[in-house]
Amino acid sequence: MEHGSLTDLSSSTFSLMDEDHTLANSVRFTLNQDPRVAFCGYSIPHPSDNKVNIRVQTTGDSAKDVLKDALQNLMVMFQHVRTTFDKAVADCKENRPSEHMNIDTP
């Protein structure tokens, strides 16, 4: 859900439901790396709510478009981490047979 002015598209607050610090801090970090962002921060209105408010103020571009770009960049980063992790696990399994590992495998 987006909360903002209909006339000034460069500033908006976005509410993300069923999310917490894990996603919000990653989004905030990614947004703050973007030179189009003048300010970005997030808050959780109440600890018992699974809701995050992310405030985005840009230097002129649409806050919605900048957030969308940040989320796409974050997905690319997550995919890279997942690929790197899966490769490391496969390499480990290839180089060390499971009988030498102290891991229960199903």
From TrEMBL:
<dbReference type="GO" id="GO:0003899">
    <property type="term" value="F:DNA-directed RNA polymerase activity"/>
</dbReference>
<dbReference type="GO" id="GO:0006383">
    <property type="term" value="P:transcription by RNA polymerase III"/>
</dbReference>
<dbReference type="InterPro" id="IPR036603">
    <property type="entry name" value="RBP11-like"/>
</dbReference>
<dbReference type="InterPro" id="IPR033898">
    <property type="entry name" value="RNAP_AC19"/>
</dbReference>
<dbReference type="InterPro" id="IPR009025">
    <property type="entry name" value="RBP11-like_dimer"/>
</dbReference>
<dbReference type="InterPro" id="IPR008193">
    <property type="entry name" value="RNA_pol_Rpb11_13-16kDa_CS"/>
</dbReference>
<dbReference type="GO" id="GO:0003677">
    <property type="term" value="F:DNA binding"/>
</dbReference>
<dbReference type="GO" id="GO:0005666">
    <property type="term" value="C:RNA polymerase III complex"/>
</dbReference>
<dbReference type="Pfam" id="PF13656">
    <property type="entry name" value="RNA_pol_L_2"/>
</dbReference>
<dbReference type="GO" id="GO:0005736">
    <property type="term" value="C:RNA polymerase I complex"/>
</dbReference>
<keyword id="KW-0240">DNA-directed RNA polymerase</keyword>
<dbReference type="GO" id="GO:0006362">
    <property type="term" value="P:transcription elongation by RNA polymerase I"/>
</dbReference>
<dbReference type="InterPro" id="IPR022905">
    <property type="entry name" value="Rpo11-like"/>
</dbReference>
<feature type="domain" description="DNA-directed RNA polymerase RBP11-like dimerisation">
    <location>
        <begin position="12"/>
        <end position="83"/>
    </location>
</feature>
<keyword id="KW-0539">Nucleus</keyword>
<comment type="similarity">
    <text>Belongs to the archaeal Rpo11/eukaryotic RPB11/RPC19 RNA polymerase subunit family.</text>
</comment>
<keyword id="KW-0804">Transcription</keyword>
<dbReference type="GO" id="GO:0046983">
    <property type="term" value="F:protein dimerization activity"/>
</dbReference>
<protein>
    <recommendedName>
        <fullName>DNA-directed RNA polymerases I and III subunit RPAC2</fullName>
    </recommendedName>
</protein>
